[in-house]
Amino acid sequence: MDQSAASLVPAMPGQRLARGVARLLHSMDHAVLTEFVPERGLRVDLVGLGPRGEIWIVECKSCRSDFVADRKWHRYLDWCDRYFWAVDEAFPLDLLPERTGLIMADPYGAEIRRMAPETRLQGARRTRLMRDIARVAARRLQAANDPLAFSAGAS
User: I want to staple 110 with a disulfide (CB 3.0 to 4.6 A). Which of 56, 59, 105, 106 is the partner?
Assistant: First the structure.
């Protein structure tokens, strides 16, 4: 790998996993957002919007202490049709609840090892989430295309 390609790999372990998972979801025709907030007090690592409107949440855990410290993950279940953990090969898999999905990942890709059970969202919540995902994605794209539009001095 050349130096410029190496510099594109995120430094933080969870971000490296998220990159690989995003590549997997993209290959499955999902639109993916990282660091998405479905409601105040919750921030998911990745949310994927599938081609039929299905919503998946993926939480990336880089080590045992990262998993143990996450006391909010149960609340994420109310905001998706399927919920997954993404971990690397060194992660102690016995920590992960069996009634959730499992994705093995690294910075370059990922593989679903256990499909998450489906619990379909109610229509009103799905509509709200799809609207919020679209708004966040549009704002991020605008900020990337015109960073000055989001600065304090912009009119």
Answer: 105
